[in-house]
Amino acid sequence: MTTQQVWTKYHTDLQHFIISKVKEKTIADDILQDTFIKIHTKLHTLKDITKLKSWCFSIARNSILDYWKSANKTVEIANFENETEIKENIHTEKDCLRGILKNLPKKYRDPLFLSDIKGLKQQEVANQLKQSLPTTKSQIQRARKLIAEGFMDCCGFVMNNDGNLVGEIQEKEDCKICN
């Protein structure tokens, strides 16, 4: 069996498993990628193909454990007094995003949260909010547009020709939303 075949057969199950453990889609995607790198490099060592699925889940489980170990090291470093002071003084995109999200109307914030943070499919979001799929899609797109506008208003970001936000976070004192 090739890595592509393993991906086709098991990546969705592995992704759901990983998300259930780490609760954050972007981190889960990184762990899934790491898992498949390990599967790809070690697939030739698997002796019994009937144990492929459990073998893949074992690799995923170990990748999750590796992530938690590395995350704990980061937390330990952050607990040092001077590191905490430095973190508090740095103004980041997260600070601006937090302010922008807080100012989003609830009708846009809720569908965006369920879709982009919780990782639900837009149809699931529509069902949960008891509204039509077109309404949900429109609200999510509007929320994303408002976030982009928030970064342009807050920190002077601009849209490039590809439709991506570009710019640099200003000092907190110069920021219109975070200050």
Explain what the structure shows.
The chain has 179 residues and is an all-alpha fold. Helices cover 72% and strands 2% of the residues. The protein contains eight helices and two strands, in the order H-H-H-H-H-H-H-H-E-E. It has a two-stranded antiparallel ribbon. Helix 5 (93-103) packs across helix 8 (133-155) and helix 6 packs across helix 8. The chain is elongated, with a radius of gyration of 21 Å.
Question: Can you give keywords for this protein?
Answer:
mainly alpha; 179 residues; two-stranded antiparallel sheet; 8 helices
The rough form would be described as elongated
> How many β-strands, per DSSP?
2
Strand content: under 5%
Number of helices: 8
* Largest beta sheet: strand ordering: 1-2
Largest sheet data? 2 strands, antiparallel
Average pLDDT figure:
81
**Unreliable segments (pLDDT under 50, ≥5 consecutive)?**
73-89
Structural class category: mainly alpha
Radius of gyration: 21 Å
Order of helices and strands: HHHHHHHHEE
Query: How far from one another are the termini?
Result: 56 Å
Helix content: over 70%
